[in-house]
């Protein structure tokens, strides 16, 4: 009975209720409730049977707020487990109750988007996720406020595109409920990939990542580093599933490959530790996006399994890395990695936590990133399970992997090993240590026990102790620790180590900015001149309308003077009029018309609404 009740619980509602309790309960009790609510999400994800658990109608539309399948189950497990660790970390990092309450509402919306079974519910959760994540950023104040406005601008724009995609999809499909074909082809698919591309940091619309995530509280950065981007990558798969066979798939795949290279390159150039990690969010999302694109291009179950597995793994090791770097910032007050060094003696537990995350994200054998990246490499490699048109993508993923290795060798070297530490600082607090080692243990677990990860992967099928998958040329079995795979990992690691030895000194002198950051001054200029154009046009129209109404009012009250004034403008040879006294005693007739742009827009909207209602 208890399991039946638990399986029918709506996960976002549990977390939202916990967010409210965090505000009213004593600090330790509120944080405990928050962690327990996310543990409940983890449990629900484990025990809920597959199918529609909540379904009904809303405003006449069929909706499925809570849908469980192998995909949403895997994402729910990752988000729930991370949520427990993040709340524990936030408690030890002295995050305020208000911040954690906002973060939990943000987490609830993200989980709601992951478990949504239709586009209408997804759209509501998507917008709520954008609003609440902005509030999490703003809460810290200072530079985070301006960054939060820029963040909101990006996500508002992306949300509008997704909303338009969903609206056109409904017109074509006649329903909001998900189906095996994903988003409708044509305009809906194009709008969806553009709108979702903002949240998954497509190149050119990725600048909100390094601009925003280094600025708020360290605990806020941990929440932000996962929930928006990973949930959005999962929603991208919902739009372009393996059964869709979309024409956009190949473009999505290559965008993912370019993201992997671009993110790793600019991560390598960063001084700010959290900015470096933020660029690596883009790089790792590139692998996930590439897998989704491959899957829908050539029907590769291995690519989809790799994408979902890497998404799950990314939830674990990316948050772990933000936690470790956050502890360094918390203890030293320093964000610049070049101003640190030798901290492994002062902070051995933090160094271990960082090492577990770094070994995972760089795909070292024995850690979870090795297994999921290996799937993606194999799915793209024409000599394994890829197709010839994916050859360039395979090399892009390779370049991204080398850049990732270089970045984390650099980060670990300068923060923990370079020189002697000239400061004495305490190591991580107990809660921070528990959170980091919990996530690090999971990274190690799914690297050694890769069968557990394969069993979670939705498109990998277990048969007689083997894990099988379909690809264009047939079926095959998963062998992540084969000799060829280990040899590839060895070559990749050696290239990274040698490459860092070569570029270390020149790299420390480079200070190159991201060219895409031009989007901010460009957006400011365009917005400013657009605003001036709109307001000046409004002012000109307003002056003309008010002048015309004022004249008509005066003419109505002073008809004789109006005739005389008009006659006075005519030549004397045409009209000879006598002078007359004003009928109002000499005082002009006036009318006061005062309203702002907002009131004008409201009045016009009401007028148009009434007219449309009358016409319909």
Automatic annotation (TrEMBL):
Subcellular location(s) per record: Cell membrane
InterPro entries: ComplexI-like_HydComp, ND/Mrp_TM
Residue ranges of domain NADH:quinone oxidoreductase/Mrp antiporter transmembrane in the record: 116-379
Sequence intervals crossing the membrane: 71-91, 98-117, 123-140, 152-171, 183-205, 217-237, 249-269, 281-299, 311-330, 351-372, 392-413, 434-452, 485-503, 596-615
GO molecular function ontology, one term from the record: oxidoreductase activity
GO CC, alphabetical: plasma membrane
Protein name (record): Na(+)/H(+) antiporter subunit D
Species name: Natrinema ejinorense
């Amino acid at each position: 009975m208890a399991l039946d009740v638990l399986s029918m619980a709506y996960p976002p509602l549990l977390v939202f209720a916990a967010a409210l309790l965090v505000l009213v309960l004593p600090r330790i009790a509120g944080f405990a409730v928050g962690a327990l609510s996310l543990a409940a999400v983890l449990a629900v994800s484990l025990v809920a049977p597959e199918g529609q658990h909540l379904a009904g109608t809303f405003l006449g539309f069929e909706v499925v707020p809570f849908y469980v399948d192998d995909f949403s189950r895997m994402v729910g497990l990752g988000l729930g487990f991370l949520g427990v660790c993040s709340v524990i970390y936030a408690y030890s990092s002295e995050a305020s109750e208000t911040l954690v309450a906002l973060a939990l509402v943000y987490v609830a919306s993200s989980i709601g988007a992951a478990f949504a079974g239709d586009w209408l519910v997804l759209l509501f959760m998507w917008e709520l996720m954008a609003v609440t994540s902005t509030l999490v950023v703003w809460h810290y104040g200072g530079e985070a406020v301006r960054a939060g406005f820029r963040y909101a601008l990006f996500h508002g724009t992306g949300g509008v595109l997704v909303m338009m995609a969903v609206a056109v999809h409904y017109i074509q499909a006649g329903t909001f409920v998900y189906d095996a074909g994903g988003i409708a082809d044509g305009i809906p698919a194009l709008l969806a990939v553009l709108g979702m591309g903002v949240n998954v940091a497509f190149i050119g619309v990725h600048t909100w990542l390094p601009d925003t995530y280094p600025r708020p509280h360290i605990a806020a950065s941990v929440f932000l580093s996962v929930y928006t981007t990973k949930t959005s990558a999962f929603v991208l798969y919902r739009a372009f599933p393996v059964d869709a066979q979309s024409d956009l798939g190949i473009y999505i795949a290559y965008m993912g490959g370019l993201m992997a290279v671009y993110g790793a390159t600019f991560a390598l150039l960063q001084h700010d530790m959290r900015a470096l990690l933020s660029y690596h969010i883009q790089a790792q999302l590139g692998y996930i996006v590439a897998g989704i694109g491959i899957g829908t291009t050539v029907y590769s179950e291995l690519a989809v399994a790799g994408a979902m597995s890497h998404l799950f793994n990314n939830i674990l090791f990316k948050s772990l890395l933000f936690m470790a770097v956050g502890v360094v910032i918390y203890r030293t007050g320093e964000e610049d990695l070049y101003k640190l060094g030798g901290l492994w003696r002062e902070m051995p537990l933090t160094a271990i936590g960082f090492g577990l995350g770094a070994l995972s994200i760089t795909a070292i054998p024995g850690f979870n990133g090795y297994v999921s990246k290996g799937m993606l490499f194999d799915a793209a490699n024409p000599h394994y399970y890829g197709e010839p048109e994916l050859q360039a993508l395979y090399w892009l993923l390779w370049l991204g992997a080398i850049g990732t290795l270089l970045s984390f060798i650099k980060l670990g070297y300068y923060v923990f090993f370079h020189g002697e530490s000239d400061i004495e600082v305490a190591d991580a607090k107990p809660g921070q240590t528990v959170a980091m080692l919990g996530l690090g243990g999971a990274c190690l677990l799914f690297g050694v026990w890769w069968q557990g990860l394969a069993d979670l992967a939705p498109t990998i099928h277990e048969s007689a102790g083997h894990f099988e998958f379909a690809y264009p040329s047939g079926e095959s079995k998963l062998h992540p620790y084969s000799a060829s795979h280990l040899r590839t990992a060895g070559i990749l690691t050696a290239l990274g180590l040698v490459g860092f030895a070569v570029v270390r000194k020149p790299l420390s002198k480079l200070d190159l900015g991201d060219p895409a950051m031009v989007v901010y001054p460009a957006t400011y200029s365009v917005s400013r001149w657009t605003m001036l154009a709109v307001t000046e046009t409004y002012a000109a129209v307003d002056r003309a309308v008010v002048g015309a109404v004022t004249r008509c009012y005066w003419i109505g009250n002073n008809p004789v003077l109006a005739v005389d004034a008009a006659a006075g403008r005519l030549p004397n040879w045409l009209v000879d009029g006598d002078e007359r006294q004003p009928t109002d005693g000499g005082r002009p007739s006036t009318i006061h018309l005062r309203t702002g742009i907002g009131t004008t827009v409201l009045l016009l909207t009401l007028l148009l609404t009434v007219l449309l209602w009358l016409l319909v």
